[in-house]
Write a structure and sequence with these properties.
Layout: E1 2-4, E2 12-30, E3 35-36, E4 39-59, E5 65-83, E6 92-94, E7 98-119, E8 142-147, E9 151-152, E10 162-181, E11 186-189, E12 192-201, E13 204-213, E14 224-243, E15 248-250, E16 253-261, H1 275-290, E17 307-315, E18 319-336
Parallel strand pairs: 1-4, 2-5, 3-6, 4-7, 5-10, 6-11, 7-12, 7-13, 10-14, 11-15, 12-16, 13-17, 14-18
Antiparallel strand pairs: 2-8, 2-9
Length: 337
């Protein structure tokens, strides 16, 4: 979602809020007495992506302006596959193809960004707005995009003596997968039994950026510029593969496994930094790579698999204040037993 205010002669306000929320639960369960001549496959699976963006823009020149952008993404995604039933006298009977119980939750994208920027106003001073264009989440859920209005200040030539920009990006995500054989289940097969759970969250990115500059040539420019950006990301991943208490499985081979995968897209965030800063960063990373083996924890894949950025800048006024906060928390749990 995006809002743009473009009148350089009036006090301008541009606000945008993009909100996405999804709760997805895929469950597959088999119970009772089963006699499968060939094989049995139980699978629960989620695949999708989230992208929530909010952008607000105000003019560089002119007097006071307020730009606010908020992007919120709330996600709960679960996949559950289970097999139960069977007794000592009447077990679950499966042919040579064996049994597989699998659960998988995969996100191909998980992005939340909020941006407040400044643009040069067109000649003549006009006001335009675009809104409601937020990218929807591909999961089944609820997505609401709300765009504020760009309005000219009231009172003729009166202008606020300040510019304010604020951007907040907020993500709260819980992704899980569980594959289980229930307590007291009794299974017999001439083939193999595999129980596997996997969670994959690819491209975790949270970003907040706010810029409130003034043109030094303005006669009635801003006397005070304030810019703030906050990025908050809380991510939980849980993969559980379990054989229940007192379960009895007779098979050629039995495998139980669980993984949590968080692949990393190293190109994210380039839009928040200048080409010169990016060049310096890449040179520094090249030097770090030469000594990677000697850096404690550098070989831990989970330490490199998520990015969060927050940046704020204020310039051109007698008083300029900018501040940013970036908080990213991740809990990963995989269990197989």
């Amino acid at each position: 979602a995006a809002t743009r205010a473009q009148d350089s002669t009036q006090t301008m306000v541009a606000t945008t809020v993009a909100w996405s929320q999804a709760a997805v639960d895929a469950t597959t369960s088999v119970s009772g007495v089963i006699n499968a001549a060939t094989a049995l496959k139980i699978d629960a699976r989620n695949t999708g992506s989230f992208s929530t963006t909010a952008a607000a823009s105000t003019p560089v020149s002119g007097g006071g302006s307020v730009g606010l952008a908020g992007a919120v993404s709330l996600q709960t995604v679960k996949a559950n596959a289970s097999l139960s039933g069977g007794t000592t006298t009447a077990p679950q009977t499966i042919g040579a193809g064996g049994a597989t119980i699998t659960a998988d939750s995969t996100l191909t994208k998980n992005v939340t960004t909020a941006t407040v920027s400044a643009t040069l106003a067109p000649p003549g001073g006009t006001t335009t707005q675009t809104g409601g264009g937020g990218t929807p989440a591909n999961f089944t859920g609820v997505l609401a995009n709300k765009s504020g209005t760009a309005t000219a200040g009231q009172g003729g030539s009166y202008q606020l003596p300040f510019k304010v920009g604020g951007a907040v990006s907020w993500t709260d995500s819980s992704i899980g997968a569980s594959a289980t054989v229930a307590d007291n289940a009794n299974i017999r097969t001439a083939g193999d039994v595999a129980i596997h759970a996997q969670v994959k969250d690819k491209g975790i990115h949270g970003g907040a950026s706010s810029t409130t500059p003034s043109k030094a040539t303005d006669n009635a420019g801003s006397e005070f510029n304030l810019s703030a950006a906050v990025n908050y990301g809380n991510y939980s991943h849980d993969a559980n593969a379990e054989v229940g208490k007192a379960a009895n499985i007779v098979a050629r081979n039995i495998g139980v496994g669980a993984n949590v995968l968080v692949p990393f897209d190293w190109t994210f965030g380039f839009g928040f930094v200048s080409a010169e800063d990016a060049s310096h960063t890449l040179k520094w990373l090249g030097q770090v790579g030469k000594n990677l083996a000697s850096i404690p924890g550098a070989n831990n894949p989970l330490s490199k698999n998520a990015t969060g950025t927050a940046s704020a800048s204020a310039s051109g006024a007698p008083v300029d204040i900018g501040g940013s906060v970036n908080y990213v928390s991740m809990e990963n749990s995989s269990r197989a037993w």
